[in-house]
Amino acid sequence: MTERKTDVAIIGSGTAGLNAMGRVKRAGKDFVLINGGEPGTTCARVGCMPSKAIIQVAEDFHRKSLYDREGIENWEGMRVNIPEAMEHTRDLRDTFVDRVLSNSTDHLSEEVFIEQYAHFVEPGVVELEDGQRIRADKFVIATGSTPIVPEAWKAFGDRIVTTDEFFELEDLPASMAVIGLGVIGLELGQAIARLGVNVTGIDLAEHIGGTSDPEVNKAAIEIISKEFPLWLGHGAEISEEADGRLKVTAGEQSVIVDKVFASMGRRPNLDNLGLENLGIELDARGIPQYNPNTMQIGDHPLFLAGDINADRPILHEAGDEGKIAGYNAAHDEIVAFRRKTPLAIVFSDPNIISVGTRFADLAPDTFKVGEMKIAPVGRALIMGKNRGTIRVYADSKSGKLLGAEMVAPRGENLAHLLAWCIQQELTVGELIRTPFYHPVMEEALQAALTSLYHQVEAKNPGPIAELRTLDQ
Known about the structure:
The protein is of the alpha/beta class. The protein is built from 13 helices and 22 strands.
């Protein structure tokens, strides 16, 4: 049995692991990057990038529903070739993966980038599949996550589809039940419904898309349910029909489908890591206790980053966690970093957004809500997308912007503007003094902010609230 010594060992070459590697390299430390399974980030292979490719195809095809009112003729023969659409998606996916690899692991030697699984055999030592052991002063654990599939459902084989298999489908089934209506379930459920699949959406929760604001959730349900039925508030059970199709039951409702898309979240890849050999404390989910500002596990020379911690399973958060973990693993002094303003986007049509403090997490009687319905917004009417609502939250006294939830067209852009403002700790009064062009979707945000301004106690000085005088 051979043993190698290095300064830092990084386990996992996804977004978090690659960002950790960047910080370790910058510090001039000796390191190894260990990865079992497919190379490339979850986002590029089976997540945010290929999903956006199929969503774009679906949105382009769905646009035909507006052609009559716009006076566009002879579109009735339009159809989408599903196998070619799926191949297009895979081609783009492969481009994204190749780009990740060419900018990261393709330039590493076999001694540095080790494509094997590893597990801890004792503190400070991991063993590879070939029996080789690696001893390191510090470890970054960034092994990512895996889609959740109930054990009983695995008996149905390839009729149960997760994101790991979805993009490999050469064709789409005639019917599909989407179980789990979070980000992935809503995005791909709506996309395949627009491409002609008979979709039924099911979720145990009463809220969809991660919403916590009851008004935003209500609007989201009303909009999405016009495209495919949503069964909420009941868990799903699956049984097999005589013809091999699947019967999915939720409460008193049932449907027979060709396949089930399981989108009930992801579980951290903790199995077989040998964490029991490290003497560290685990929480009820089996995840090591760690500091989210340093990514350090207790006071051990171990750092956790990315989806494995099941905290903020979003690419930019995984990247930041990798940077924090890598920096601290490469330096003697542990530095605590301030985390960025929370930002979550569901790329449904319209987008479903949460930014800053969510409605459910606001302290009662301390905040005010500004709201704007999308229905009368001029830009939205022109686009044929005048559906949804924007809700923004501010501290009742100071007027400091706290957060927002919305279901709105081009919400992905509005969300970024709000996230930047919240992180800069701006007040509603300051925001209404910024420019808003016409006609743009940002005018809907302007209306919500104006409504909010009239409710908070803090007011702008001067005779016109929206303008500063020259002496201010």
